[in-house]
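Researcher: I'd like a candidate sequence for this fold, 387 residues long. If you have to choose between options at a position, lean toward the conservative one.
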């Protein structure tokens, strides 16, 4: 999540002076043309502030057009876009706040209008100073004033094993066209677990909506926690989205360099920590993806890093020129990055310099693009076309 590498921070502090090398995986080592880095005067949209939140992490729209927002310390807010007022939701789980840990994602069930179910991810305490991500679901009951409560909360998934440290939880959520629940489970800064099928760290997880395991998952025959796994070899995955074809794309933070956008395929191994287009923070080399073709290579890598967080693949018509494009929030790059897709390939197409760390990206019911800034006074911004 937050980048500690001093070099990356220095580059991010002057985004107008540095362009990120956007490298296509089908031509390893060859940088594509850098995307334009657009200042505010060049934006094709207007950014309107609607509210501020305290360390917001994620947001999702409900069918009535209102918004659920998680705050990292452990609060769930219900925000009315018409009145621009927020109210707190009670009954949330206790979170392990600290470092990169705390409240994570929030996601309504595809049939929320009928069942009222919402899904929440968060960091939870374990024994002996350990922690891990968890996902629970509950029924959201809203009052007339916008406040509400979570009823019948139940944990349906946990990271295994819980480990020491406060970084790389991942725990982004998505429902796929197949109706399954998908979870990004990062490797908790422990490297090797991403390749260890006795645990679910460093994996993309696929579950039924009640937390049970689909019988057709690729590693179902192995038994145990491996049955949950769709793909492995991931580092810190903080964005997950399906395109119009039903293909799954996930971005993840690389180490010192090598942020990735991956096309996720059934049973594939993406190589971390054996390969990466970045290096260890202490300068030690990690072999590039091109050296080990048996591992699935990313479709885009970024060096210097953008520190990706939040992700949509735009399906609206308010910005018709962007229908089918991906939008990724940049933390250290303080940017909104547009990705263009061409079938199974991708490239960075534009970068909008926002001047603040962008934690979350969502598409609104009317096709507007919504952003959440990171931090104690993180703004909720609505992007609409200029004019």
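Model: Candidate sequence:
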């Amino acid at each position: 999540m937050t980048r500690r590498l001093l070099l990356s921070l220095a580059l991010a502090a002057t985004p107008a002076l540095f362009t990120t090398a956007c490298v296509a995986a089908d031509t390893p080592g060859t940088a594509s043309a850098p995307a334009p880095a657009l200042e505010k005067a060049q934006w094709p949209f207007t950014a309107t502030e609607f509210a501020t939140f305290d360390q917001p992490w994620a947001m999702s729209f409900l069918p009535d057009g209102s918004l659920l927002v998680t705050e990292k310390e452990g609060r769930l807010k219900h925000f009315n876009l018409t009145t621009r007022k927020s109210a707190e939701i009670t009954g949330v789980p206790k979170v392990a706040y600290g470092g990169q840990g705390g409240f994570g994602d929030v996601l309504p069930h595809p049939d929320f209008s009928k069942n009222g179910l919402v899904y929440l991810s968060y960091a939870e305490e374990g024994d002996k100073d350990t922690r891990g991500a968890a996902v629970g679901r509950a029924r959201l009951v809203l009052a007339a004033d916008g406040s509400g409560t979570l009823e019948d909360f139940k944990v349906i998934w946990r990271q295994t094993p819980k480990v020491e440290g406060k970084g790389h939880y991942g725990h982004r959520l998505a429902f796929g066209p197949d109706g399954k629940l998908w979870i990004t489970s990062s490797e908790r800064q422990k490297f090797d677990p991403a390749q260890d099928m006795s645990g679910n760290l460093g994996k993309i997880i696929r579950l039924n909506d009640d937390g049970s395991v689909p019988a057709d998952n690729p590693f179902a025959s192995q038994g145990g926690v491996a049955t949950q796994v769709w793909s492995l070899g991931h580092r810190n995955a903080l964005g997950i989205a399906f395109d119009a074809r039903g293909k799954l794309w996930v971005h993840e933070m690389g180490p010192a360099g090598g942020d990735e956008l991956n096309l996720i395929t059934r049973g594939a191994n993406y190589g971390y920590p054996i390969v990466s287009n970045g290096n260890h923070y202490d300068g030690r080399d990690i072999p590039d993806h091109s050296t080990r073709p048996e591992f699935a290579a990313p479709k885009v890598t970024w060096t210097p890093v953008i520190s990706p967080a939040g992700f949509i693949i735009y399906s609206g018509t308010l910005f018709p020129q962007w229908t089918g494009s991906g939008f990724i929030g940049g933390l250290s790059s303080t940017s909104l990055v547009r990705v263009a897709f061409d079938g199974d390939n991708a490239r960075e197409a534009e970068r909008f310099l926002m001047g603040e760390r962008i934690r979350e990206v969502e598409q609104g019911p009317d096709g507007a693009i919504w952003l959440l800034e990171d931090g104690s006074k993180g703004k909720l911004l609505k992007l609409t076309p200029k004019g």
